[in-house]
Amino acid sequence: MCALKKNSYKNVRIFKQVIQKGGKLSLQISHKPLIGLYYEESSPDIILEEILVTEGLPYLRLYSLEKIDRFSVIILGTIKVKSHEIHFLERFFQNKGVLLTVQPQGLLLDYLEIENTGQTQTDGYLNIQMDK
What we know:
With 132 residues, the chain is an alpha/beta fold. It has a domain at 34-112: Rossmann fold, CATH 3.40.50. The chain is built from 3 helices and 6 strands, in the order E-E-E-H-E-E-H-E-H. The protein has a 4-stranded parallel sheet with strand order 4-3-5-6, with helices on one face. Strands 1-2 form a two-stranded antiparallel ribbon. The longest helix is centred in the middle third of the chain and has 10 residues, at 46-55.
């Protein structure tokens, strides 16, 4: 098993696609950090960070949504998105970003046009594709 050295994510290049051209492989490389992680301090969502560290996945810890368009994937803990942060999410989705969220609430529910049914999903995940 191989793992990244601590803080080596700064030099990681994420391979986006492998394209075969005339029998040769060509790599398209993205210099974006793969994962941005945003959760509220002293919340149980710290477990998300522990999982990323344990699995050796390169990520950057975020303290606001302001610059999320720099990432390919954003993981949001159980947070309440503020009205001025919706613009950042819109820009993120326009850049083909992928959002993974834990128990979305408030404005985020409204923005994603989903509702909390009060039930739990026991055998899978809810996958939403934005076709706007």
